[in-house]
User: Fold this.
Amino acid sequence: MPSLSVIKAVTNLRFQDKFTVYRRVETVTNQGLSTTVSTAIPNIYGVVTQEPGNALTQGADSEYQEDIIGIISRFQFQGPTDLNPETKPDQILLADGNTYEVTNIQAFSRFGPGFCEITAGSIANLDKPG
Assistant:
């Protein structure tokens, strides 16, 4: 039986999307004031998929649809993991004009060393980083 090499599909640029990652770093001044600085990391590649859970949520006076994506990439994301779910997300993605916040990161070594799978939720109502 022939085997299917998924690694070739995941690393092929024809199947990958390009996005920008904004890594947020919080610093404290000598006066004790906290500031957050975003550093843009452009031209990151990964396979982006639509995740389940994009249901319409209705509130008392509004309704919205969550937008959750999954990305498989070799880029080393930072943020919450299954082992440390309390970690504050510190990365924002800008993909296809939409803004997402990294909500979960998992090692995805079945595709090879260095791969990870992230889940990111839309934060379209917030200001874009930069």
